[in-house]
Every structure is written in structure tokens, then in C-alpha cells.
Amino acid sequence: MRKTFPKQVLAAAIIACLAISISAKSEKPAGSVPQWFKDAKFGIFVHWGIYAVDGTGASWGIFNKSIPYGKYMSQADRFDPKKYDPAKWAELFKEAGAKYAVLTTKHHDGMALWDTQQLTNGEKLSVVTKTPIGRDLVGPFVKAMRDAGFNVGLYYSWLDWSNKDYAAKGRWRRGEAPPKNTTPENEDKWKRFLAFIDGQLKELCDNYKPDLIWFDGDWDVSPKDWKMADFKKKLKSWDPGVVLNSRMGGYGDYDTPEQGIPVVPPKKYWELCMTMNRTWGYNKFDTKHKSAFQLIRILMECVSMGGNLLLNVGPTPDGTIRPEQVAILKKIGVWTHKYAEAIYGTIPGPARIHYGFPSTLSKDRKTLYLCVFNSPVNQILFKGLINKPKKITLMATGEELKRERVGGAPWMHIPGVLFITLPKGLEVGYGTVVKIEMDEPIKLYTGKPGAIEQN
Ligand code: FHN
């Protein structure tokens, strides 16, 4: 005879199973980013350190042995950025339309830009103790950015090619797959190194309360050996609201593709980091800057696919931003301020099967912003818009645009193709935006209309 269970026992069992599945999920590194980060869309990355002095590039010369370690570190003797004025940086970043900024507080070379009390090989390795500037550079950056209304991110490199306790340096050759489970060579040294990191992260969090920590350099060692799960718990206990990027062996809150727009957007929220020229740190010989048009297009590609752009500047040895980068940021700013409504606080537009260029939607999904980057252009088309738009305008001027819907079979709910005519001979410059206002949230048709009679 089939054993029957009282309803209460069954219900309790179901709840218990649900609880187990939820808790199991929560043990996996969950990614969650605050609304400010999703609304911000555009940040500025600042790679600045002793490596600006001779333009050696940030840290890698040490690893690739293209420059003797001593010669690389000797740049510290001449790092004296007398013109460092982060309020001026903030003004420029604001003019560019950025909403947050991230500063390298310690790159792979191990040189801290703040007055760390942690010891590297028995001494404090920072711009305070080792360079003529002799003072904390992080604090003024954080204050200036906050005063300008920015959210602040601090970049921190897990790996440290100065610290003799860092076990894995040199293990991974560029182009080879990083060792998956690199077990540090010496347990005591590794424990000491993890305590060093813990101390530096605590200093950064206590002293500056960053909104975001931008980790880097996790690739040599497994998340287990890095104790990433513990670091994540600790960082979130120090500040539950802090955002952590993905470079914590997958324990972070969002993904960080680099130097290339992801063809398929990552599942987690994401942020593309990209240099303006080809180098992260200042290199006067690297004059190959992307154009403002290219960077605006890249920004809108990211935003339209549900990501942010973190665009890098490499300040000069004297603490200023090089003129080419100033000019590009200003040009970007003209565009981002003009089309702010189509950028900040939006959600991704419809998939490219509907419209061939980047598009975004207002959060209530009643306003659609179609970017137009090709010129000259007569008409643009949108496939599968079920709504009958209330108003279609050229955002820059407010001019109503002629629309024409062709094909389709309304009686079969097949909407056909919407053609929108742009002003004759319109030159879109860095891009223009067509705004489509609807009475209701957008509705899209994704069918494949067969012979109408068959439908
Ligand atoms: O090695 C670093 C590099 O110097 C730079 O800091 C970039 C920024 O994302 N991160 C590493 C390379 O992925």
C-alpha cells in the first residue's frame, strides 16, 4: 500500500529543498551591481605611477625582462608630479560625460600610490617613502572625484612583482595558458603575502571607502590559493555596498572584457576597459589614439548591449593629462551631453535583429533611442515594432520625422517594416539619435511571416 505523507510534512520537505537549492546557489560567486553602476555607463580609468617617468609602460617590463628591475624602479627617484591636480582631472572627466573614475593604487610593480604601512621585503614601498613627491596621491584623487559628484573606484593588483613573497611571478609566459592550480612554492611566504594583501586592502577600504574595487592580476594563482572567497566575504563585510570586478577568480560582481567589444555580451553585468591609444600608462611615443567618433561608437555599442565603457587615460610624469587625450575627452563630452537622455539610466535596446545599430530604451520601455552612425543617410528601418509610435523625432533638433510602415498584415498582427526618413543630406557627424516615443512599453514581433493566408 502506497505510504502517504501528511500535507504538512510534504510542504516542509519542499521548502527545505528550495532552501537548499537557494543556499547552494548563493555559495557560488553571485554577481550583483548597484543601480548607480548600471546607470553610469561611462567611466574613466587612470593608469598612473612611476612608470610614467620614462614611459616604460605599467610594470610589464619587469616581467618580460625588457628592462632591468632596478632601472624600472629607478623611475621612482624622478617621480615628482608637481602639476598633479585631481580636481582638474575631475573637471575634464565630467566634461567628457563620465560618471565614475578608477585610479591604479598599486599596479603589478608593487609601488603603492598611498602611504601603505604594509612592508614589501621589509620596507614600505610607496610614492610616499620612495619618490620626491613624498605624499599620498590616492586621497586627493578620491576627494576631488567625490567633490565633483563621481563614484570612485580603486584599482589594485593582486600580483606583485616586487614582493619576494609573491610565489607565482614568472610562472606564466605571455601567450601560454596561465597555470590553473598554481600552488605557491612556500606556504609561509604565501601566508605572509596574503596577509600583506589583506593589510593593504583594509587600508584602502578604511582610508578611502571606495565605491568599487577594480582588481587585476589574479591569473597566476587559483582562486582557492588566493583565498578569493574569504577576500570577497571580508571586503563585503567592510562595505556591503562595494562593487567588486570579475578579476577575483570569478568571485566578483561584474565582468571586465578588455580592449575589445564583446561580440556576445557576458551573462553578468559588464564593463569594457579600453586604452585611448595603445598603452595603459603614459608613453609619449604612443600617439595612436582612437578617434572621438570611434570611442563614441564603442561607448554606445557597450551601452546598447547592457555594459559600461571604462576608458583609460595615462597621465604624464608631471600629473597632467596629455593634450591629445584632453581633446578627445572634450569631443566625446559634446556628444554625451547632447544625447545624455539616450545614454545614462537607460536599458539595452532591442536586439540587432530589429535595428542594425546600437539602440537603448528608457527604463519604462516607452521611449526608444536609435543611434545613427552612418552618413549620408536617407532612411533607417526598424523591423517588428508592434507599437504605433506617438512621436518620432530627431533628438538633436526635436524635428518630427516622416515615417512609413511597409509590408506586414495588421489583421494577422504582423507589423511589417518601419521606415523613418531623416532630414535630406543629414550629416550625422559623431552620430545622431532618433527618438521614438510610444504610449505603452515597446512590443516586438519576432515571427517569420509565411504566406498570409497560411497564418
Ligand atoms: O596587466 C594589466 C595591464 O597593465 C592593465 O592594467 C590592464 C587593465 O585592464 N590589466 C592587465 C592586463 O589585462
Q: What string gives the helices and strands in order? A: HHEHHHEHHEHEHHEEHEHHEEEEEEEEE
Largest sheet: 7 strands, parallel
Please give the count of helices.
13
Instruction: Tell me the Rg in angstroms.
Output: 26 Å
Please report the first level of CATH classification, the CATH class of the largest domain.
Answer: Alpha Beta
Q: State the strand order across the main sheet.
A: 5-4-3-2-1-7-6
* CATH fold-level name of the largest domain: TIM Barrel
Ions, cofactors and other ligands present here are: ligand FHN
Helical content, roughly? 25-40%
Structural description of this entry:
With 455 residues, this protein is an alpha/beta fold. It folds into 2 domains: 114 residues, Golgi alpha-mannosidase II (Immunoglobulin-like, Sandwich), CATH 2.60.40; 308 residues, TIM Barrel. It is built from 13 helices and 16 strands. A 7-stranded parallel sheet has the order 5-4-3-2-1-7-6. The N terminus is likely disordered. Bound molecules: ligand FHN. Ligand FHN binds next to loops.
